[in-house]
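User: I've been trying to design a sequence by hand for this structure and keep getting stuck. Would you show me what you'd pick, starting by listing the structure so we're on the same page?

Assistant: Good idea, let's start from the same input. This is the structure you sent:
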């Protein structure tokens, strides 16, 4: 039997469930997820190993109209994925077609001539009756290879998606070794989990002003312990005050949920030390952006 392999881009507007799908396919958390849009900021690779097949999924930041340098860099990295992959998964969510978000995506899609599967996600949320007309309407906008309704949350439709993907892969070698399911460094994943908890605990604009860097990871094997020290960057002193909270309660809550999640992910006890610094206007400063990994 010939081995099949390929790169598959997961692309779409913010908040439709792209990262949730990647985690669901891999059966493990490699990408952070939150109820707020613009959670994913970098391209995240997740590698699926199946019988005679390897699929390299590329999760991307949600594509939207934007002016700030941070978001421009996010959107640019998502748009680049149109060129880089073999197959595109364009994801939207149940509900009326959002023209402002969907039409620009379609324009990019028509520029590259690649197989594209349209995923309508979050079907667990709505009545089934709306699906058929919605699928027909999307079908009129573009000759998608196939339109698949799914729920990344419950897993509904995901095995059908995997079958449809496999049937479109070409013969090729495995790109990554069997034991590898992401190309992210440990540091990056830890910083991302901390960032996820900031999205969960803090309201409004604050999460968008935060970046996280891991300074040090120290392994204490005889205690089955990882000591991690990380720093959260915000743009202003007042944001720093909010993030730390009264008597440090907010930063403690963020640290506690990050620690619990990291313990689950790494299977060891974690000691997490979090500090907060102000990096003035880092979301607008291209040099600071680069320094913070964007
Ligand atoms: N009900 C329901 N909620 C979902 C489903 N998939 C994702 N969600 C929720 O939708 C929200 C956004 O999910 P993400 O996976 O972070 O979305 P994303 O497309 O990666 O978002 P960005 O990274 O911001 O572009 C989270 O609160 C998820 O729990 C689904 O199938 N059903
Ligand atoms: Mg995401």
């Amino acid at each position: 039997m010939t081995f099949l392999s390929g790169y598959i881009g997961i692309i779409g507007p913010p908040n439709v469930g792209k990262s949730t799908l990647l985690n669901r396919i891999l059966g493990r958390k490699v990408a952070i997820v939150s109820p707020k849009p613009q959670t994913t900021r970098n391209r995240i690779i997740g590698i699926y190993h199946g019988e005679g097949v390897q699929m390299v999924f590329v999760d991307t930041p949600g594509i939207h109209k934007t002016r700030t340098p941070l978001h421009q860099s996010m959107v640019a990295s998502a748009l680049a994925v149109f060129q880089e992959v073999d197959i595109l998964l364009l994801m939207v969510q149940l509900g009326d077609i959002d023209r402002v978000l969907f039409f620009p995506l379609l324009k990019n899609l028509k520029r590259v001539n690649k197989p594209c599967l349209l995923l309508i996600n979050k079907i667990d949320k709505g009545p089934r009756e709306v699906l058929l007309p919605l699928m027909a309407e999307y079908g009129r906008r573009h000759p998608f290879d196939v339109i698949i309704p799914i729920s990344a949350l419950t897993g509904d439709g995901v095995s059908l998606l995997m079958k449809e993907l496999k049937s479109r892969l070409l013969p090729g070698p495995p790109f990554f070794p069997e034991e590898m399911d992401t190309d992210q460094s440990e540091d990056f994943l830890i910083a991302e989990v901390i960032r996820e908890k900031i999205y969960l605990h803090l309201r409004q604009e604050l999460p968008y002003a935060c970046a996280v860097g891991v300074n040090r990871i120290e392994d204490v094997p005889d205690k089955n312990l990882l000591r991690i020290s990380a720093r959260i960057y915000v743009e202003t002193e007042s944001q720093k005050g909010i993030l730390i909270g009264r008597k440090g309660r907010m930063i403690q809550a963020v640290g506690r949920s990050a620690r619990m999640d990291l313990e689950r992910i790494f299977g060891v006890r974690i000691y997490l030390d979090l500090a907060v610094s102000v990096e003035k206007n880092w979301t607008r400063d291209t040099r600071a952006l680069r320094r913070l990994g964007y």
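That's my pick for every position. To get oriented when you compare it with your attempt: The CA atoms of residues 135 and 225 lie 50 Å apart. Residues 186-291 form a domain with the GMP Synthetase; Chain A, domain 3 fold (CATH 3.30.300.20).
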